[in-house]
Amino acid sequence: MNVIDIHSHFFPKDWPSLAERFGGDDWPWLRHDSEGSAMLMRGDQEFRPIYSACWDGNKRLEEMDRDGVEKQIISATPILFGYERPVDQALYCAQLFNDAAREICQVDSQRLFSLAQVPLQDLDASCKEASRAKATGHVGIQIGNHVGLKNMDDDTVLGFLEHCANEDIPIFVHPWDMMASERTKDYMMGWTVGMPAETQLSIVSMILGGGFDRVSPKLKICFAHGGGSFAFLLGRLENAWHHRDIARGKSKYPPSHYLNRFFLDTAVFDHDSLELLVKKMGTDRLMFGTDYPFPLGEQKMGHLIKTAPSLSEQNKQKLLASNAESFFQLTT
Ligand code: CO
After folding, report:
1. Are 4 and 288 in contact (CB under 8 A)?
2. Could you report the per-residue pLDDT of 73-87, keeping only the tens digit for each?
3. How far is the CA of 167 from the centre of ligand 1 (A)?
4. How far apart are CA 280 and CA 286, in angstroms?
5. How far apart are the CA of 193 and the centre of ligand 1, in A?
6. What is the DSSP letter of 303?
7. Is the omega angle on the peptide bond into residue 293 within 30 degrees of 0, that is, cis?
8. How far is the C-alpha of 46 from the C-alpha of 98, rounded, in Å?
9. How many angstroms from the chain centroid is the CA of residue 154?
10. Pairing of β 171-174 and β 263-265
11. Which long-range contacts (CB under 8 A, 24 or more apart) does 323-327 make?
């Protein structure tokens, strides 16, 4: 069975010191602790242990072979985005990590593909970098799900999405900079609670902010982690839309009307959750994603879909590969 993982992450093995270049004490860098393992640092704080699959394309291919993954799309980790920094610094980071991603993919350009990042706080700079990224071989752009206090219905974000719709550049939306950080700092609740809430907020703000009404229907957009809490709470959203005028926002139609305007990945780790996504979204708008090579990713890549009790072989193939092939226009 053909298998394409659209949600996996990379870090370059090394990069020039951003703290030395720009000043400040909270830039990301890698502390290599032993052969093949490193600690991602933010300033002097330990952020996350990672291993060589992040930067070594051959290690990645070895683990893809182990689990029967034919192709992977790699993207940066949101800590590298720099949306909160001056635009020249975020653009420098974008170009640095975008070029590094292309380099990792060169190990096998038929199996490894990449998404680029952009300085989303600036419309002009992000459009230019997106076009440059497409020209240098990236198959799409990954954006964070908000820029500071601006949600997905912000004019700058929508302007960028329109640019990508017109240039036929697919978008992958990843949660980051999670809400309520003071109350979710223990037990990784920022990841298990905050991230799904962030993604739900993004889809809801796109719908109720009139984002899908304003942006071209040509836009190809996919949200991470099965859309977070969105599918489970769609009924609540729909009920509010029908019974309180202030809950309708700027959307022309009820929320469920817009389900055919976006895609979700399948990183939900549970058959019942996957079944709900299939019921709500159908089988043409879901794409296999793992969050590899992180501990919170799918450890046996592809297992969830391959063993899904209620999916036909044909639908499994759609979720595992064919939807992604057409979304990202991957040549086979
Ligand atoms: Co991820």
Report:
1. yes
2. 999 999 999 999 999
3. 25
4. 10
5. 14
6. H
7. yes
8. 24
9. 19
10. unpaired
11. 323/263, 323/283, 323/284, 323/285, 323/286, 323/287, 324/4, 324/6, 324/73, 324/287, 324/288, 325/4, 327/6, 327/170, 327/220, 327/222, 327/263, 327/287
Ligand 1 midpoint to CA 260 (Å): 23
Distance 244 CA to ligand 1 centre (A): 35
Residue 10 CB-density burial (10 A; 0-12 exposed, 13-18 middle, 19+ buried): buried
Measure 7 CA to ligand 1 centroid, in angstroms: 6
| pLDDT of 176 above 80 | yes
Residue in 53, 58, 42, 62 with CA at minimum distance from that of residue 11: 53
d(CA 12, CA 198): 27
CA distance 329 to 322: 10
Cα torsion 72, 116, 26, 56: sign: positive
**Cα(246) to centroid of ligand 1, in Å?**
33
pLDDT in tens, 246-266: 999 999 999 999 999 999 999
> Ligand 1 centre from 253 Cα, in Å?
31
pLDDT at 298 > cutoff 80: yes
Distance from residue 296's CA to the centre of ligand 1 (Å):
9
Please answer whether residues 195 and 144 qualify as being in contact, where contact means their C-beta atoms are separated by less than 8 angstroms. Answer: no
H-only helix segments in the chain = 18-22, 57-67, 87-105, 123-135, 155-167, 189, 195-208, 211-214, 230-243, 271-281, 303-306, 313-317, 323-327
Torsion of CA 41, 42, 45, 49, to 10 degrees: -30
Q: How far is the CA of 8 from the centre of ligand 1 (A)?
A: 6
